[in-house]
Amino acid sequence: MSNIGSYEERVKDFSWEISEKELEYKKGDVINIGEYCTDRVCKMGKGDKPALIWQGHSGEVKTYTFDRMRVLTDTIAQYLKDKKINPGAPICLFMDKIPELYFSFLGILKMGGICQPLFSAFGAESLFTRLEDAGTKAIFTQKKHVGKIRKIIADLPHLEHIIVVDHDGRKPLRERECAFSMEKAEAVEDFEIYPTYAETPSVLHYTSGTTGKPKGALHVHYSLISQYITAKYVLDLTEEDIYWCTADPGWVTGTSYGIIGPWANGVTQCVLDAGFRAAGWYKFIEDHGVTAWYSAPTAIRSLMREGKELVQQHNLSTLRHLCSVGEPLNAEAVLWSTEAYGLTFHDTFWQTETGSIMISNYPGMKSKPGSMGKPFPGISAAVLDLETYEPKQEAGVVGLIAIKPGWPSMFREYWNNEEVYNSKFKNGWYICGDRASIDEDGYFWFVGRDDDVINTGGHLVGPFEIESALLEHEAVAESAVVGKPDPVNMEVVKAFIALKPGYEPSAGLELKIMNHIRKKLSPLAMPQEIEFLDKLPKTRSGKIMRRLLRAKEWGEEIGDTSTLEDE
Ligand code: WT7
Questions:
Q1: Is the CB of residue 491 below 6 angstroms from any atom belonging to ligand 1?
Q2: Which domain covers residue 212, as residue numbers?
């Protein structure tokens, strides 16, 4: 039996107060996500229940109860306080999916800091852009990643503390670096949690747009109200579940539903700190008895490639509810999962900015393979006319996905970027930047993004950031970066490049440029293909026509290019 019961019934009587009541929160009260995920769960008598079952890449397993998690997060919070880091300071997490990552997240929130998680595969330049923009005060990292910080520290005067969580004393620490082991530090049992309120900033997630630098979407502690109830109704988490969210907390799925939502529900979570391997994933599910699973279409397509035989070699009978996010979940993948696992993947749609699931297929609701489902109860979603921003009344017409502002987990600002924040609202709606249509039964069907942002395996990468980094390569005169279709990752990065005089296209140069981006930005941003052109197509005013190049990759008719000219 699902938590949500009948969707139609739930929509009728839903209000966010249901969530507030379950969390025993009253308007004006103190609300701290760190406390809700640890102390409160312990107070409800679940202190001895496993909170985290963690498995490393060499197979070692560590289990932490809610009570142990409470103490470790208190210990981290106290450490930050002792360092005189003030509440409200942005503190970055730059670590692999090790237990310290999860517990530092909650420890930071407990001392009132703003948690800024960044993907540990980021190179020095991606890291620098985000630390500089946020004015980050401290960063948690591992010795394997500290080299990237050393490269950029000279230009980050505000970064006062580099906290290395696994320092073994072998190599000396440098300026501003300090060693801290949460397990070896003296345990703190009763940290006085900083009294954060509904509108106190909590998490800062960077996300890429078409133009300009990545933007920091700032969330507040009140987001818990949305994250708790969506984890319960959409992911269908219950007391007995063993839940696995495959996302990295460097991205919003890994925090909203890889930390906050499930733990606020007192649910046991599993984490696998290892790369993707189909057999490894199935074994993980089998070994830990995973019941609820939240993953992404790219992973599902990769599993499809490995076939059903591999599924049959494992006992996956504990699984009972599967959800997906990040990219369009093709009908084919939904049907395959139904055959292979006897369970259907439920698509969910949301964004860094929305903080929690907006549109989805609910357990107990008739799902239409290929559709994203319906708005969460309490969410008012529409498809707007591309020009007038008026909601479309007719079924099947494509427009802009938009949400009525006011849901608890809505981002409150882009860090230091009011102008871009304001540009996201039109006619009283928050504009997601995606296109969809709604059918006669109220189901949303995703069409595509409304901008040039590339979605590779569920990760957004901004063409502008890559183009800027390409220009830093000595051979590159001009570049345009677009998404190119890919059977597994949906899109991969493709770069069109015009070389400077004196440079000739060659396979060797191509590799060098690819590597340049991989190291500077990340493996995700690295072009999988480079096409050298004598010159790039431009509008009369000199703007590179990215869209023309993209259309070519997708085999789309673009017709009269003069219409594209000065957009
Ligand atoms: C963008 C948001 C919060 C989830 C992780 C990504 C795309 C997300 C779906 C879906 C089609 C989807 C959209 C959206 N997207 N879910 N179910 N079907 N597209 O968060 O990095 O902020 O990306 O991901 O384009 O705008 P994000």
A1: no
A2: 1-48+66-223
